[in-house]
Amino acid sequence: MTPSRGLFTRRSATRVVRGVAVAAVLTLSLAACAGGDAEVAGADSGAASFGDASIQFSWIKNAEFMGEYLADENGYFTEAGFDSVDMIEGPASIEAAVISGNVDMGIGNAISTGTIIANEGAPLKIIGATYQKNPFTILSLADKGNIASLDDLKGKTIGVQASNLSLWEAFLEINDIDEDSLTTLPVQYDPTPLFNGEVDGWFSYLTNESIDAELLGLDPVNLPLADFGLPFVAETLTVTDDAIKNDREKLKALLVAEIRGWTDAINDPKAAAKLTLDTYGPTFDLTIEKETRQAEIQSVDLVVSADTLANGLFSISDELQQQSIDTLAATGLSITASELFDMTLLDEVYAENPDLLAYSK
C-alpha cells in the first residue's frame, strides 16, 4: 500500500524497538558488521575508495531525507570515495538492519536506539544527529482542543497510538500530570478523528500530521514534546561499534558527504522538496505543498541550532546527549551517554574539514 495522508504508520520512540526481531539479529556474528577495511587507494587520484555503501531510512523517501538526496544528486558521495550509496526506504527497523550488517548506517532516533542498547545490549552507537530536537507533538485544532500549554490538557481526550504509549506516559510523568485528569484514547495512525472533532488532541509529528492539518486549513496548534520535558535528538545516524573501530574512515567519508548534502538542503529547501518529489519519492503519493513545508520546517526549526552554528551540522552537545539520556530514564531505561553516543568521528571530520562548519550561506 502506498503511504498517504493518515496512513503514516510511524513515529514512535518504540516503532523499531521489538525485542524478538532484535534478539534474532543479535545472534548473528559481529563479523558480518565489519566487512573488513574498506579503504583502498584510488586508481587515478590516489584518494580513498570505499566501494559501495548503504543507508537504511526509517521511513519512506520523503523530504525527511532531503540531505541524503542532495548528497547523491550533487555527487558528494562520489567525491567522498563511494562507487554508489544505496538509500533504502522504510518503514524499517534501522537498528536491526545495522546490527545484521545489511547496511552501513541507519537513520533513526535516540530513544529507539537507546532502548535497543539498554534492553538488548546492542553493539550500536549514534555518531551524529540531523534533528537537534525531536518533532513529536500533541496536535490539536484551534477550534477544538486548542492545547497550547500543559494546563490545556486537563479534561481533554488525547488519541495515542499503541506504539507511542510509553513515550506519552513518560511525558505525563515528567510533567507531573495525573493520568486521571485527562482521557487517553487508543487510536490508529489516521488523524481523521482529530480532524473531524472526535478527539481533542493527537500524538503526532510536526512534519507530518501537523502539516496535513495546516494544508487542510484546520488551524493546527502544537504542544511539542521537546519544549515540554522530553527533549531528545532525532534523525540520528546509527552504526555498529565494530564499524567505528574497523571502518572508521568509511564512516567519516559518509559523514562528509551527508554534511555537504544537508548544507545544500537547508539553504534551498524548496529545491530539496522538488528533488524529493521528482526524483527520489515519485511513487509515494507525495505533494509539493507538503514536502515543501516539511523541508522548510526542518531547515528552520529542527536541523539547525545555536550548537550547530558553533560546532557544525549533526553535532550533539553534551547537554543534548544528557537530555536524551534523561528522556530514556523517564521511560524507565538506564543508559549512559557514552553507551549511546560516540561523537569522536564527527570531531575528526570537522578537524580535518573545517570548511564544512560554515553551512549557512
Automatic annotation (TrEMBL):
The keyword Iron applies. Pathway: Cofactor biosynthesis; thiamine diphosphate biosynthesis. Keywords: Iron, Metal-binding, Pyridoxal phosphate, Signal, Thiamine biosynthesis, Transferase. It comes from the Bacteria. One of its GO terms (biological process) is thiamine biosynthetic process. Residues 1-34 form the signal peptide. It catalyses: N(6)-(pyridoxal phosphate)-L-lysyl-[4-amino-5-hydroxymethyl-2-methylpyrimidine phosphate synthase] + L-histidyl-[4-amino-5-hydroxymethyl-2-methylpyrimidine phosphate synthase] + 2 Fe(3+) + 4 H2O = L-lysyl-[4-amino-5-hydroxymethyl-2-methylpyrimidine phosphate synthase] + (2S)-2-amino-5-hydroxy-4-oxopentanoyl-[4-amino-5-hydroxymethyl-2-methylpyrimidine phosphate synthase] + 4-amino-2-methyl-5-(phosphooxymethyl)pyrimidine + 3-oxopropanoate + 2 Fe(2+) + 2 H(+). This is Thiamine pyrimidine synthase. It comes from Cryobacterium ruanii.
